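Q: Hi! First time doing this. I have a protein sequence and I read that you can turn it into a structure. Is that right? Here it is:
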Amino acid sequence: QRYCGFGFSCRPDQQWSKMADCKVKPGRGEADQLSTKVQSDRLKEKVVKRHISDSNGSDGGSTPLDELTALEEAFRRFAIHGDTRATGREMNGKNWSKLCKDCNVIDGKNVTITDVDIVFSKVKAKSFRTITFDQFKDALDQLAQKRFKGKIKEEAIQEIHKLIEGLSPIVSGITKTVLSPTLTRLTDTSKFTGSHKERFDQSGKGRGKAGREYLVQNTGYVVGYKHAGTYDQKVKGAKDD
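A: Yes, that's right. Below is the predicted 3D structure, encoded as structure tokens:
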């Protein structure tokens, strides 16, 4: 046996294998740095791929927002109206009807709400309740010549597109609550009697503290006297005469 330079007692045929095993291995800190570098390189690669995909417009076939036409912008605005889960790629029949009303596609003469509903049923796919943007344009093409009679097809399509381009859904005002007959009767202060009647004036407005507590009035008349103030009028009238 021989003692190698690494402090091992071994035979000559084992000396080189021991030397190979005794090579210096990277410490824990160096291994962590190497792992961090690999992860960083992978992250950079993903970012570059995503940037290329977005620039090519390959994200599920969607069009980048800065390349949307005015007509498609209007379509997406109406498509997501009233539905927080909508993506803007498909439009239901309710929002289609609202678009036709808000954008004056429905004029009550050439195009009616019935025409709009019929066209929607024609262009949508069977067993589907929504239409895509391409189907939306097909529906407008069918309504164009009805809405703009006397014009050629291309001009009619351009005119109907102008009615819609760049517009957004019209948000109506606050809806008034319709009271039931029972609630209306219970809130009608003109029909109150007794102490409840004293709490409101003739217009139905609450009198506040004056309607709940007795307040002394230095008028010289008994509270509730119907002819209060008539004496002063009579005296002043006699003096004037």
